[in-house]
């Protein structure tokens, strides 16, 4: 039975690398796969998934308006697809997550989605929230904070290198993101309570 999988992590944990490796494994065995990625930050009309370690593959772009069930069903009419891989899954809408679930349930094709769980403010993305709610299988991909602890949060840095504590969840402007542990996220976001006064 086909399933909907969600692999989530903080920034720079290797999500795209793992996606590309899994897709390569299918293709190496002679099976066709469909790669999808968000058009949100793409400057070009053609999609591409790339990894920090230098590997990449062409992909079909989706927007918030794309009916993913219809898109995948049309692809299946042309070629037998053994798996669907979705990059930047945090940018999916709730409806699109349900469309992907129907691909698994009604079309019998496994869907493997990869994305961030939370934004720089510590809030769930819409797509991640829906995936956490209905995916058949959840997997955390781990990365580490500068202190060596597991990094589960992300901070956004401004042009001056300072931590931004406010702003839109999705920013089209180029920004730098750093993965940190929860303790250092609170520290960088200025959320620590005041230190207790020392007794005299």
Describe this structure in words.
This protein has helices at residues 15-28, 68-78, 94-106, 126-134, 182-188; strands at residues 4-9, 32-38, 47-50, 56-62, 81-86, 111-116, 137-140, 153-157, 163-164, 176-180. It has 200 residues and is an alpha/beta fold. The protein has a domain at 4-141: P-loop containing nucleotide triphosphate hydrolases (Rossmann fold, 3-Layer(aba) Sandwich). Strands 3-4-2-5-6-1-7 form a seven-stranded mixed beta sheet, with helices on both faces. A three-stranded antiparallel beta sheet has the order 9-8-10. Helix 2 packs parallel to helix 3 (94-106) and helix 3 (94-106) packs parallel to helix 4. The longest helix is centred in the N-terminal third of the chain and has 14 residues, at 15-28. The protein is elongated and about 55 Å long.
Topology at a glance:
Blueprint: E1 4-9, H1 15-28, E2 32-38, E3 47-50, E4 56-62, H2 68-78, E5 81-86, H3 94-106, E6 111-116, H4 126-134, E7 137-140, E8 153-157, E9 163-164, E10 176-180, H5 182-188
Helix pairs in contact: 2-3, 3-4
């Amino acid at each position: 039975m086909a399933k909907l999988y969600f692999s989530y992590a903080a920034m720079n944990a290797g999500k795209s690398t793992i996606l590309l490796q899994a897709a390569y494994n299918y293709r190496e065995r002679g099976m066709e796969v469909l790669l999808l990625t968000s058009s949100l930050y793409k400057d070009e009309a053609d999609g591409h998934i790339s990894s920090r370690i230098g590997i990449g593959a062409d992909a079909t772009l989706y927007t918030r308006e794309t009916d993913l069930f219809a898109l995948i069903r049309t692809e299946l009419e042309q070629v037998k697809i053994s798996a669907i891989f979705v990059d930047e899954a945090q940018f999916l809408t709730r409806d699109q997550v349900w469309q992907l679930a129907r691909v698994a349930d009604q079309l019998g094709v496994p869907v493997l989605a990869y994305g961030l769980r939370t934004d720089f403010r510590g809030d769930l993305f819409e797509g991640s929230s829906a995936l956490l709610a209905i995916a058949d299988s959840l997997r955390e991909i781990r990365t580490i904070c500068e202190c060596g602890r597991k990094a589960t949060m992300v901070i956004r840095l401004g042009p001056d290198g300072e931590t931004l504590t406010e702003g839109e969840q999705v920013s089209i402007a180029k920004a730098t993101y750093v993965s940190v542990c929860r303790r250092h996220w609170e520290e960088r976001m200025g959320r620590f309570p005041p230190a207790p006064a020392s007794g005299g």
